[in-house]
Design a protein that fits this description.
Largest sheet: 2 strands, antiparallel
Radius of gyration: 25 Å
Helix content: 55-70%
Number of strands: 2
Strand content: 5-15%
Mean pLDDT: 76
Order of helices and strands: EEHH
C-alpha cells in the first residue's frame, strides 16, 4: 500500500508514497525527494554569502591599492 522512498539529504525522517491510486511515476518519486527543502535553501543562502564575500574582497583590494598610492610617496 506504500513505497518507502530514499531519505533526502538533510532530512532525518523517512519518506513514503501511497500506492492506492497505482504505482507512482519516476517523476513523482524524484519530485518527492527534491521538494523545497532546508538544504536547497541553505545552498542558495551560502551562494549569496559567497558572492557578497567576493565583492567585499574586491573592494578591499581596491582600497589597499588606493592607500598604497596615497602613502607610497610619503614613505619614500
Amino acid at each position: 500500500m506504500v513505497l518507502k522512498l530514499d531519505r533526502s539529504p538533510g532530512q532525518k525522517d523517512q519518506r513514503w508514497v501511497q500506492l492506492l491510486t497505482g504505482a507512482p511515476s519516476a517523476q513523482t518519486i524524484s519530485q518527492a525527494g527534491s521538494s523545497d527543502s532546508q538544504p536547497s535553501r541553505l545552498q542558495a543562502h551560502n551562494a549569496a554569502l559567497e558572492e557578497r564575500i567576493s565583492a567585499v574582497e574586491l573592494e578591499l583590494e581596491r582600497m589597499r591599492k588606493l592607500l598604497e598610492d596615497l602613502i607610497g610617496p610619503i614613505g619614500d
